[in-house]
Write a structure and sequence with these properties.
Elements (H helix, E strand, L loop, with lengths): L6 H17 L13 E9 L2 E2 L4 E6 L8 E4 L5 E7 L2 E8 L16 E5 L4 E3 L2 E2 H4 L5
Parallel strand pairs: 1-8, 1-9
Antiparallel strand pairs: 1-2, 1-5, 3-4, 3-6, 6-7
Length: 134
Amino acid sequence: MIVHLNHSCFKVIGLLAITVLTIGCSEERPGEALPKITVEGQVIREGKPLTSGWVEMVPVDGGKGVMQSGPIDPTGHYLATGLGPGLHGIRVIVPRDKTLFPFDQFFSPIRRTFTTDSVQTFDLNLSEESTKPK
């Protein structure tokens, strides 16, 4: 017996495959819904707002969720959404600005613990962060 599949049948099979793969790629474990947290604040360097770039937040040491980022506007304000609770490493990225080291590296010393509150404010003063004990 030979089965002939038409073009629409392949579309249905493809959509089913994508659906199954997407369900398996969730950042949450089955039955465990993570709170979605919004973090905002201002990035300051040498007493002035950083006026461009973005802030990246990555869960570390048991923090929940996946990396999220938010752009820095001309007033130094950033907003990142969809974060999970727990400890996160934070880095500040400004393309073509080599003076942000080490805050622009994956091993940035900035760490913040996010609670389950839906909106949280964390200002980042890079001058103060550079003098904190490691």
